[in-house]
Amino acid sequence: MFLCGSNFVGGALACAPTPTGIENINYVELKNGIYDDLYISKNTDFELSNNCPAQWDFDTILWAKFDNTTNAGNVDWNLETTSHIILKSRTEGNFKWKTIVAKEVKGLDDFVINYPDYFVASGQPVEYAIVPVLYGCEGIYATTRIVSDFDKMFLIEGDTVWGTEITDGYCDTTRNIPSSTVELLNGRYPIFVRNTAANYDTGNCKGSFVPLIDEAGCELAYDKEYDHQRTKFQRDFMDFICDGIPKILKLPDGRLWLAQVTPSPADTANLGYNDREISWPWAEVGSVNSEEDLYYLGFSNIEPEWWNS
After folding, report:
1. Would you place residue 228 in the very low, low, confident or very high pLDDT band (cuts 50, 70, 90)?
2. How far apart are CA 268 and CA 274, in angstroms?
3. Residue 133 and residue 131: Cα distance in Å, rounded?
4. What residues pair up with 137 in beta bridges, in sequence order?
5. 128-142: per-residue pLDDT in tens?
């Protein structure tokens, strides 16, 4: 079965020399019949026939064979023309993509990608693209868009995620641009001297890290009966931030850094002995949008051959 314009073959204008349908076809329905195939192609130069083409080509949009399934895709065809599948992301509005997953394709199961993306800022629209690759040559991008939204402070290393209610913590920052002013002998005003391109943030964060009452609801345990667990969590968190490994720091207002905890974190009591808060200083050590920084700081295992120049 073929579609001409927007009519089935046999319709009043289906075989007109000039197709009359000018609107895009975005919905197809088959019912009250027995069908062998449904084949839709972008190619308008064809001869009417009762037989479908022998194989997929680059003009094929979908081909449902109704062989005990309603699948109309071309996974088998792509398997022959795909050596790798890659997942890319970028902040909406940016031109440059960054590769976050590169996977060699050896079988149909390799087309499945599950990747927790911790590099997404709160409230910031992000675009993702799945791209088939044949020995270095990229295919057509399949894209989607998401917006992440959260109300807690997070510190992330690998698959380990620590968080605290933002109402119980804060994160003040300072922008560092090493420079000096020099006063001249015969000048009223000083001159500004900057001998480095360094331009990075430092900050100090603070929060109470306690166990979860309900993991599904993410309710934190502040009741007295959990005091002994809170102390254990605070100590575990202190060990976490002092392991010397860079981390992702995310705040609910959209700020996000690649941060290194610097000396020396402090565990202090707030209103009560067991009501404790941990504060830790940190320094920005890279850009979340730089594939090179992510790779050399240990946040990504994407080799340079997949980087987007």
Report:
1. low
2. 9
3. 6
4. 134
5. 999 999 988 998 898
